[in-house]
Design goal:
The structure holds 2 protein chains of 2 kinds. Chain A is of the alpha+beta class. Chain A contains 3 helices and 5 strands, in the order E-E-E-E-H-H-H-E. Helices cover 36% and strands 12% of the residues of chain B. Chain B is of the alpha/beta class. Chain B has a 9-stranded mixed beta sheet with strand order 7-6-5-4-3-2-1-8-9, with helices on one face. In chain B, strand 2, helix 2 and strand 3 form a beta-alpha-beta unit. The relative contact order of chain B is 0.15. The chains are: A alpha+beta, B alpha/beta. The interface between A and B is medium-sized, with 22 and 29 residues.
Amino acid sequence: MNDIPIDGRSVCRLRPGWRLQWEEAQQRHVLLYPEGMVQLNDTAGAILAELDGQRDVDAVIAILQARYPEAPAAAIAEDVHEFMVDAAQQGWIHHD
Amino acid sequence: MTDRTDTVTSDGQIGAPLWLLAELTYRCPLQCSYCSNPLDFAAVEEELDTAEWIDTLTQARAMGAVQLGFSGGEPLVRRDLETLVAEAHRLGFYSNLITSGLGLDESRIEALREAGLDHIQISLQASDPEVAAAVAGSRKAHGKKLAMARAVKAAGYPMVLNVVLHRHNIDRIDQIIALCDELGADAVELANCQLYGWAHLNRAGLLPSAAQLEAAEATTVRWRERLAERGRDMRLLFVVPDYYADRPKACMGGWGSIFMTVAPDGAVLPCHSARMLPMRFPTVRERPLREIWYESEAFNRYRGDAWMSEPCRSCDERHRDVGGCRCQAYLLTGDPAATDPVCDLSPDHHLVEAARREAEDDARPARELTPRNVHESRVFCRT
């Protein structure tokens, strides 16, 4: 665990041994971990799919803002930040 | 397995089997007196071969299965385990090896890792070799398990340790958790043994008393606080025995809902205990998996709520707990369609209360429990 708060420069990655995967049968992304699975909604799936171990939170926000130009940019930034904080609390992701 | 994703639909639609438990063999070097394998496991002789397992995995994946457990018996007994793991990885499964740790060594851990295994769950019987030996029938097993747990962690796997709790080890839960902490576990399943199969046979010697259970839960809560203070991320999952609940669990998320077991001989089951029910389950040698899951009489028998009897039939909670566990209903009442007697609304609940009272008395010592082995199993084999 890591007590440093997540900000725009934080690099988040999936917890070691966990895997994100698109499941055709379920038509959604799932997060797979030892003997369990989180079924993700579209937003959560889209955010986690951009974690490559290099990009920081700001870079992930920029990618999603470019992909969804019709959505308010500030709202995307807020959604991503909130999701990262929540995902870290749940232990889905680790961050630097 | 725990933390199951609940996708029971109330509109009667049959969902995909998201979980596949592949019981590769009933062979096992240990003799745990609470084993969930069927009592008559020795009657199963012809295990599916490598090609049949690969075909089964391929079919299951095409149906949407994504979590895969390799189990048994002891799955490491199968020399083709690495081949099956590699195939599972290629197909896109998240694969878990559920093992005693016996049959494992550093080179096999490495080979499994290269084949794409995602996770290894090792079971421990106790915190010390004496109790472990009394429960599992092997004096050497405990030390070997500890060594393998360390090796699994060193190889970089996430590690879940599973400890089956019962009245002979539950009072040592503090030492058990300390051991798991020291081994570097990421999560610990402190699972009170559920009373099916061999555990039901040995019930009088396994079910803890209410006081034992309460103390163990309190210890677990204290450990959670201590771990959090240290910033140590080790999840403790404490599973209460059904017999001490007032409402039944939604067993397997519902019959034929998300979970499918394939037994060593290819029998397809809605859970690993269901084989003891008085009904016949089709095998992958007879019919395609898809047909078995969606169309077989066995898998449709306890889906939905039309099969329920009272008090479930008119109960507001019937979709929450789906009537509880069919195996438990059958073992306790002789009727697999009865309300799970764990429910305090069940007319048979007194049977569970009687077992709790029995657990207040002196239990059979661990050495008098019936060990799970081929010799004892033959007694239960139908001719």
